[in-house]
């Protein structure tokens, strides 16, 4: 029997993802794609109560610290699955009922983003989501492979860029040129505490020429595919209530 | 559970008519007689480096490490007494060997290049391509018992080998490690695993620069190379990331286990991605088509001394390896459909290639290569 999660638990699914195959597959731009990797960090969760934003915390788990969470959706075909498909908030049913909106940041705060990965708690020390002290973490990582043409891959690695420091293993002293954090606000229907989120990859990759492009990996978000992807994250409903 | 145990212990004391202090002395004596001398092994790690994960069924002790070290260097462990673990895993070469492939104790060719033993305690996967091993104890069974190809060749000679280990010196070492002076193969495996876990390397110029904050530890050329290593131009760090420069690493503070395997485009025999029959990597374990030619990214620590490179030792020098990745694979392998998306080739000028090589050399830890604690006993 399906057990309903607790009041503060929000399941997150990827719309249209076929989980019967390994790797999982999805249809995008009229083609089937293998999802080799798909995950992202969220931070600073807040709910809107009586017209005011109120900070809330994540429960501490291997996937969450009180202020940040890592979601991962791809299958691990070479071993036990290591997915995390729900957010666990420290919140009562009453609080969730009263909230009129939920917001979070896609990405990590500056301090956590550039700290020594060896001494950070899980999930900040997941090396597959880390780039370097200088540039910090991958806020979002998506690696797709075209099913009918395995040679063609499309990757989107989002993180801060234009960060200056003495070298790759020294943190920057000040904010990077493009911080590339994205604020997401999701209006909620009051009295609805049975919440679930859905990620829509078609919205995320819209107008990116998936078949011709190799994607965007830590490039400036002001042009080309990177610019398009950033615009999609900022203005299209790539994540929404289910 | 504890209060009940204490209570029953008290009642036994009552029945025997002993005073509490006598009982305490007696208990202490019994514990000493029945328990191994378990001096917890203390890893000597720089302040910022987290401890490795040690399996609960084989806690690491000084006594096991001592016994394991003796076993590691002892040719008694091969059936024909011609080889020890150290025959292929040689300390000056970061416990790898300067040969394309290993050769077993009976002269049989082992198809793969000997892997270096560097911070193996932090591995989340073992051997070049196996997704079923989470502990060294499991991996060790291969060199010890494998029959095809034979490495140390213990299978069938178990009794003889245990007899060889029945000298007074070994009996005393087993007694200290396991509270029984009778050598067992289980003890051999646990002791070897403990010694191999103790082999750590975190004192390279890179470590001094990155983790100890010593700005002078690396040359400017090495720093230039490091910046290239961590850049999207070369993509090196995607697979060789984390504290051990291998994505398949973990440590005490890391809850999420990563075990990735990659096809690097070395071969493409049939135009459809096939690796040579002799070694198709993870596919041989999982029997999944997508795992064709997938191997584990090895650590890059001390990589300059562990040539030749790749699972089959088919690249002779670091220069060759950099050129291989710059080309995005080798020959037909470049178009291998299972190739990692991060191996697309890159353009570096000669100075940049030299800088990248210089960075890889900054991962050499001379104290590790000469540490007498890791050498023959």
From TrEMBL, chain A:
Residues 24-217 form the Copper-binding protein MbnP-like domain. It comes from the Bacteria. NCBIfam families: MbnP_like_WxW (TIGR04052). This is Metallo-mystery pair system four-Cys motif protein. It comes from Alteromonas aquimaris.
UniProtKB/TrEMBL annotation, chain B:
It is found in: Periplasm. Residues 63-200, 220-364 form the Cytochrome c domain. Its main location: periplasm. Keywords: Heme, Iron, Metal-binding, Oxidoreductase, Periplasm, Signal. InterPro entries: Cyt_c-like_dom, Cyt_c-like_dom_sf, Cytochrome_c_Peroxidase/MauG, Di-haem_cyt_c_peroxidsae, MauG/Cytc_peroxidase, MbnH-like. The keyword Iron applies. PANTHER family: CYTOCHROME C PEROXIDASE (PTHR30600:SF14), CYTOCHROME C PEROXIDASE-RELATED (PTHR30600). This is Di-heme enzyme. It comes from Alteromonas aquimaris. The lineage of its organism: Bacteria, Pseudomonadati, Pseudomonadota, Gammaproteobacteria, Alteromonadales.
């Amino acid at each position: 029997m399906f057990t309903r999660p607790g009041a503060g638990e929000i399941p997150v699914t990827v719309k249209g993802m076929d989980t019967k195959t390994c790797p999982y597959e999805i249809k995008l731009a009229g083609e089937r794609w293998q999802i080799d990797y798909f995950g992202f960090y969220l931070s600073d969760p807040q709910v809107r109560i009586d017209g005011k934003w109120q900070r809330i915390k994540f429960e501490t788990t291997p996937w969450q610290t009180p202020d940040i969470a890592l979601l991962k959706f791809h299958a691990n075909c070479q071993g036990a699955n290591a997915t995390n498909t729900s957010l666990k908030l420290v919140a009562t049913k009453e609080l969730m009922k009263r909230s009129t909106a939920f917001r979070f940041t896609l990405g990590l705060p500056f301090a956590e983003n550039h700290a020594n990965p060896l001494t950070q708690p899980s999930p900040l020390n997941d090396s597959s989501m880390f780039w370097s002290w200088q540039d910090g973490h991958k806020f979002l990582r998506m690696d797709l492979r075209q099913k009918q043409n395995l040679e063609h891959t499309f990757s989107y690695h989002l993180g801060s860029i234009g960060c200056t420091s003495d070298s790759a293993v020294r943190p920057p002293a000040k904010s990077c040129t493009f911080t590339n954090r994205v604020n997401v606000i999701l209006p909620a229907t009051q009295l609805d505490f049975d919440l679930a989120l859905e990620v829509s990859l078609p919205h995320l990759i819209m107008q990116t020429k998936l078949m011709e492009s190799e994607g965007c990996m830590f490039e400036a978000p002001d042009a080309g595919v990177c610019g398009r992807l950033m615009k999609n994250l900022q203005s299209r409903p790539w994540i929404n209530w289910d | 559970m504890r209060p009940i145990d204490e209570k029953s212990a008290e009642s036994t004391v009552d029945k025997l008519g002993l005073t509490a202090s006598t009982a305490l002395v007696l208990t202490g004596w019994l514990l000493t007689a029945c328990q191994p001398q378990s001096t917890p092994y203390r890893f000597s790690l720089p302040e910022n480096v987290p401890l490795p994960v040690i399996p609960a069924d084989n806690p690491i002790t000084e006594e096991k490490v001592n016994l394991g070290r003796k076993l590691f260097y002892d040719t008694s462990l091969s059936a024909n007494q011609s080889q020890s673990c150290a025959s292929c895993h040689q300390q000056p070469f970061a416990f790898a060997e300067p040969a394309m492939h290993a050769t077993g104790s009976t002269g049989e060719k082992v198809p793969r290049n000997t892997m270096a033993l560097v911070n193996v305690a932090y591995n989340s996967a073992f051997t070049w391509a196996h997704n079923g091993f989470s502990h060294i104890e499991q991996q060790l069974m291969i060199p010890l018992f494998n029959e095809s190809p034979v490495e140390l060749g213990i299978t069938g000679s178990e009794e003889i080998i245990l007899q060889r280990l029945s000298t007074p010196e070994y009996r005393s070492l087993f007694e200290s490690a396991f509270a029984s002076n009778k050598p067992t193969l289980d003890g051999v495996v646990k002791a070897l695993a403990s010694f191999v876990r103790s082999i750590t390397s975190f004192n390279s110029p890179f470590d001094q620069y990155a983790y100890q904050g010593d700005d002078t530890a690396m040359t400017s050329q090495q720093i230039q190379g490091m910046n290239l290593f961590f850049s999207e131009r070369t993509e090196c760090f995607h697979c060789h990331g984390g504290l051990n420069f291998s994505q398949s690493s973990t440590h005490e503070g890391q809850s999420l286990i990563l075990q990735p395997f990659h096809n690097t485009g070395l071969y493409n025999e049939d135009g459809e991605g096939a690796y040579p029959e002799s070694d198709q990597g993870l596919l041989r374990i999982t029997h999944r088509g997508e795992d064709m030619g997938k191997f584990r990214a090895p650590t890059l620590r001390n990589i300059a001394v562990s040539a030749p490179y790749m699972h089959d030792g088919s690249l002779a020098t670091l220069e060759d390896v950099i050129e291989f990745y710059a080309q995005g694979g080798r020959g037909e392998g470049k178009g291998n459909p299972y190739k990692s998306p991060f191996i697309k080739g890159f353009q570096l000028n000669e100075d940049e290639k030299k800088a990248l090589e210089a960075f890889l050399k900054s991962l050499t830890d001379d104290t590790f290569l000469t540490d007498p604690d890791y050498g023959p006993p």
